[in-house]
Write a structure and sequence with these properties.
By secondary structure, the protein is an alpha+beta fold. Helices cover about 40% and strands about 20% of the residues. It has 17 helices and 18 strands. The strands form four sheets. Strands 2, 3, 4, 5, 6, 7, 8, 9, 10 and 11 form a ten-stranded mixed β-sheet that branches. It has a four-stranded mixed β-sheet with strand order 1-16-17-18. It is globular.
Length: about 575
């Protein structure tokens, strides 16, 4: 039955199909390793870990119930157990005590459970969408901003030859797949859309992101009134980088009453420094800084009128911002766009602490036939055109650089004309070849369906269901950690990343468990931390957690959190 297994009769009953799931029963225990991770349980439940479980997922009869599996996966993410394989090196009995069981499942058992949970393709996306809708509804801001950006996940395996993507953090073109994430201003994630063939940010906004937001965001009565009374009023604001620059997209979103906020991809001449005024603004993280800002109106190539805001740096550089948000103040819009770094920080933190890029399942699956890809023949012609255009540019540079001395001899003059003649002939030949290639490229389809690819160019996509399921759990864990960090920052001299570092220490700290069936409580007594200052900082956090009156799932025991010896 495995190390740490003590509930033999229940396990036998489960093996015979006579047990729905093992009852959750806590025993008094001291010095339970990583017991501090239980402090995150109220935040995990508040973030929706088990709220939609019964609606979307089910497991057959067995010792481990579905709630225990979800709790285990959520606590694993917070404890920085980065994969199922790493669970082999954790004490199964110690983790079992945290869940009210004798031990946690073996890795092969957990893999089997995940296979059952992830057998319906698209179920994880639907679960994520329901949670995202709930998270969006909780936003208490009067002005909603949604940040959309792509995250490239590099694939180093050999299961399939994925298309190459440019990976900015490595400055290389590597085989990868792209996820387009939607986040809040402070970096909190809502959901993401996986693209095995990256159509680009503009196409993803048009085809996936905007339709989803329109279908899942209800307008408040106040918004409906404002939209009806003011032709320039907007529903919410989409924020993205220069990759999404498209006057056509801006106009389409304006017709949907959705404002855009992005960088100007083709700003004109610098504005005069006298136009800029100094403003004191508060950043998304609470820090107050000064910015030199100025504003004008601008008309794009399609005659769409927008606001253009520029920020002047101390070095004299001007950053140009475009928006169709005509209600928000200039300072608010500048801060909102520069808050894009919160999303970038989210990607970096998730890669480092939650293994966001980890491959969750080996194997591939077919790409839907409706997906279009770049025609390899078109790509080949385009590459040849670029190559020959580069050769022509170099020859033209040589042609322009040729010059005679002030008093050349006759032989030098003849050599000069001969060399220029040869270069001119080579340039003319290249011009003819480039024109012919451009005509061929024009006649060649740019995009073709996946099923029309030549046999040697065909590829499949990485399996997506288990990856999206685990990533949704990581979103819940990240949101739970963020809510706890916001409570900690109020009582720490140094907030920011220090709050998250302290939480990571708490999650690795041992704790004592004391169930009281008569009082219907489960006391989690966290051991002292490394510094007295840390103990003082978490005392208010424990009070806030106790105020939630959280009941451990599957029991009637209310969690009570304490610090230090009794």
């Amino acid at each position: 039955m495995g190390n740490g297994a003590t509930r033999s009769l229940e396990r036998v009953a489960a093996a015979m199909g006579e047990l729905e799931s093992a009852p959750i029963e806590f025993q008094a225990a001291c010095d339970v390793a990583q017991g501090g991770v239980l402090l995150a349980l109220p935040a995990l439940l508040a973030a929706g870990l088990l709220r939609c479980t019964a609606e979307f997922y089910e497991l057959p009869k067995g010792f481990y119930g579905i709630e225990s599996i979800f709790l285990l996966l959520g606590l694993m993410a917070l404890a920085r157990i980065r994969s199922l394989e790493q669970l082999r090196y954790q004490a199964p009995g110690e983790w079992g005590k945290l869940l009210g069981l004798d031990r946690i499942p073996e890795v092969r058992t957990l893999r089997a459970k995940l296979k059952l949970l992830c057998q319906d393709l698209g179920q994880a996306m639907r679960w994520n969408a329901i949670l995202a809708k709930e998270w969006i509804a909780r936003q208490n801001a009067t002005e909603l901003y949604f940040y959309c950006d792509g995250h490239v996940r590099v694939y180093h395996g050999d299961q399939t030859a994925l298309p190459r993507h440019y990976v900015a953090r490595e400055r290389l073109c590597l085989r990868a797949t792209t996820d387009y994430w939607i986040n809040a201003m402070d970096g909190q994630p809502f959901l993401y859309v996986n693209k095995e063939v990256d159509p680009g940010l503009i196409a993803t906004l048009k085809q996936d992101v905007i339709p989803w937001l329109e279908a899942n965001m209800a307008q408040t009565p106040e918004q409906e009134r404002r939209l009806a009374e003011d032709a320039r009023a907007h529903w919410f604001t989409m924020v993205f980088d220069r990759e999404g620059y498209s006057p056509e997209l801006f106009e389409q979103m304006r017709e949907k009453r959705i404002a855009i906020l992005s960088y100007h991809k083709f700003p004109r001449d610098d504005w005069g420094s006298e136009e800029f005024a100094t403003h004191s603004v508060e950043l998304a993280g609470g820090e107050t800084v000064t910015m030199k800002l100025a504003e004008r109106g601008v008309r794009l190539s399609n005659n769409l009128w927008l606001r253009e805001i520029r920020k002047l740096t101390d070095s004299g550089h001007q950053t140009s911002i475009l928006t169709t948000n005509f209600q928000a103040p200039m300072t608010t819009l500048a801060v909102s766009l520069f808050a894009r770094w919160s999303q970038e920080n989210f990607f970096r933190y998730m890669r480092e602490h939650y293994s966001l890029d980890r491959l969750m399942e080996y194997g591939t699956e077919p790409i839907p036939d409706a997906i279009s890809v770049i025609n390899p023949q078109w790509r080949k012609l385009d590459s040849q055109i670029r190559s020959k255009a580069g050769q022509r540019h170099r020859l033209a540079a040589q042609f322009g650089a040729l010059a005679l001395s002030e008093d050349p001899t006759e032989s030098l003059v003849q050599g000069f004309h001969l060399r220029k003649g040869h270069l001119q002939e080579e340039i003319q030949v290249l011009d003819l070849e480039i024109d012919n290639l451009k005509q061929l490229r024009k006649k060649t389809e740019h995009h073709i369906p996946v099923k029309s690819l030549p046999e040697g160019d065909r590829f499949t996509r990485l399996r997506t269901e288990r990856k999206h399921f685990i990533d949704t759990l990581k979103m819940i864990a990240y949101r739970a950690e963020s809510s706890m960090a916001s409570l900690l920052r109020e009582h720490m001299a140094r907030g920011g990343d220090d709050a998250r570092a302290l939480l990571r220490q708490i999650f690795q700290t041992a704790a004592d468990l004391t169930p009281d069936l008569a009082a219907k409580t489960l006391t989690v007594r966290l051991h002292h931390l490394t510094q007295a200052a840390h103990d003082q900082a978490i005392e208010p956090l424990l009070a806030d957690l106790n105020a939630t009156q959280t009941v451990f799932p599957g029991t009637k025991l209310t969690l009570v959190f304490k610090l230090g010896s009794s």
